[in-house]
Predict the structure.
Amino acid sequence: MTGRTSSPTVRASRAVESFQTAGEAIGPIEPGMSMFALTRGQWSMIDAVLWCLDNVGPARLSLWTWTIASYEIEVFNALRADGRVTDGRLIIDSAARGKNAPLLAAWGARFGHGSIRYVVNHAKIATIETDRFKLLLRGSMNLNFNARFEQFDLSDGGPAFDLVRSVEEDLPVLDIGASGAAIYAASKISEAFEPEKLALFQGVKRWAK
């Protein structure tokens, strides 16, 4: 990676209660910025990503998501084809491999086989990197909008960006047919849970009546 350090010396922070668009909430993208927004779900993570791309120009993009819903497909495909994305990486929950297989194949064809990481994931994160910016976007929203309270954070540079990028680089490239055991190993889930607790999340779940 090239460009300036990930540790801005001055960081301007602000908080916004958003009732309108992502662009109006986020505002101009400035070096060292940091902002928090509370929305009613009227804009999504993709809306925030598109606004940032509009402001910073061609960039390296990574997206962390759980799945891609049917009503997100058009926007997702447009993002995949967007010339402003010079390099793309998708960190997606392994459960999406069935429902989203055609989309994943298209993403891989556009950005290369190693551009997808299959993991156990519920994080909603995006990074946008240029020679000038190292933007980290995170929030409760998925790629789509959802008419309920959502929170959103955006910062430029700093240790949070470095941590996310480090985790991304550490994830192995797995084939779409990788086993559940390989997915869990790649996600390092076993390092965070004792074996008996991890067993609760495996196999078919049965709910008590």
